Description:
binds coenzyme A; 7-stranded mixed beta sheet; single chain; Aminopeptidase
Amino acid sequence: MSTDYKFNIRFATQDDCEILYSWRIDPDVRKVSKDSSEFTYDSHKAWFTKALMNANIKIFIVELDNIPAGQVRFNIQNDSAVISVSLSKDYRGKGLGSKVIQLASNKFCSEFNINKIIAYIRQDNISSRKSFEKAGYTLLNDKDIFCEYIYMNNEIRN
Ligand SMILES: CC(C)(COP(=O)(O)OP(=O)(O)OC[C@H]1O[C@@H](n2cnc3c(N)ncnc32)[C@H](O)[C@@H]1OP(=O)(O)O)[C@@H](O)C(=O)NCCC(=O)NCCS
């Protein structure tokens, strides 16, 4: 049950480089990613170091009972952002994804004064689609391999 854990969401730092790599190279994560190609630790490190300095990329680490359990990334594009999420294998299949998505989306919107988030999710990634729907995301388009979902945070006024 998601309520059994103490949730904390914080910004990623350089110290999270290795754990993020281990989550990114997980085959279950690669196969649902838009860019499913593989990469080395060195190329991940170079990407991550640049991402931390990029004002349009925000990476959050989700801690459950003080243990890093997943990541949520937002890529800002003008007045909206694209979200991607992954939980560490041990924390999947427990219904935690929806709460993680909801908490991270609200934190992101209020910190950066952005009220529109888009998610691209593979048609067949049912656990992800259900998690986003439960977190308040609405289906916009399911015609392509990647469905498009939208989240509007109505508490933020631009
Ligand atoms: C996607 C992810 C964040 C989902 O979080 P999760 O907590 O593991 O999700 P769950 O497996 O508990 O499933 C969520 C819901 O979908 C339901 N579900 C899962 N598979 C289902 C299926 N085949 N048919 C019907 N319902 C299904 C579950 O019963 C659950 O419902 P509930 O919340 O009402 O109990 C997580 O699994 C993950 O990190 N996966 C790897 C990376 C990934 O796919 N990221 C998303 C890319 S868009």
